[in-house]
Design goal:
Response regulator; alpha/beta; 3 domains; 339 residues; Beta-Lactamase; Rossmann fold; five-stranded parallel beta sheet
Length: 339
Amino acid sequence: MERLERLHDGMVELQGRLELVPSLDGLLMASLRPVLLLYRGRIVGANLAMEQLLGESQEQLEGQDPAARLIATEAAGNRPAEVQVLDGEGRWRHLQVEWLDAAPYQLLIFERASAQELGDLLAARERAREDSRLKSRYLTLLQRELEPLLSELTEEMRGGDDRIAPQRHAHLRERIADLMLLMSSLAGEQKGEALRKMRLPSRQAGPLRVLVVDDGPVNRMLASQVLETQGLRVDSVASGAEALELQQRHAYDMVLMDIFMPGMDGVEAARHWREQEAQRPEISRSILVALTANATEKDRRRFHDVGMDDYLAKPYAPRELVELLQRWRPDAFEEAPAQ
């Protein structure tokens, strides 16, 4: 009996010690650095930071060959110290990796390869390149919009049906306002007052408040000017962290959230936005709209999973943004009451 009691006590002590040992999944998920777990050269585990970096869930990554997403750019002994990683936005990013072997398992722990200052410079350079690419796309969009407009103007000058002239004039006037907005945004000019005068007089914007979250200055300027010309209150920030700070001070009817941003991306920011929103039930639920150049079915599912309501593909015309707002908040565009 004494031996059984000692054996029982030993088993209880052993069980208590085992309960203190954290699970592998728990260790991976607790890391803020991206982590991949390989078994015989195949992915069998990933933490949340890695899922966000690669843009896929752990279930989707399991069984994949990491060589399809990782390219070694520098070797240290038999293991790479620096790699290029294909992220969820289709961009190759330089990261440093610590490669730990425990055959047949391998653990890859990633971090930025460069110092913080160099990382900031690289991020600024990438943002400048993206800004340049967006300007080029907007110019292409501007050219595409101008060609049919010039044809309509030519036809109008040659004469037409006088009965539909007022409607045609209003339509042409509205399209010219959109083009002016595109041109002023590309030039970095503020022409809000002139554009407000070109709004259709039959519309009355409601007191909605919109937040534009985008690290690209061209996109922030374009969206802000479009919405301000509709009489809306607009705030704009360049990062997800700044957006979450503003959420604590203001209630927003709609949030336009860029997906690819340095640091906290739009998906993570949207997840935190909904979490903070749940803590303030007295505040109405914001409409979250993803701004992205990539809008595949997988992307749309990812946006939906974190609580985003819609998306707008870049580059977008001013009319597309207004139509998005009309679709979600038609009450902001009700007919003005008679005076």
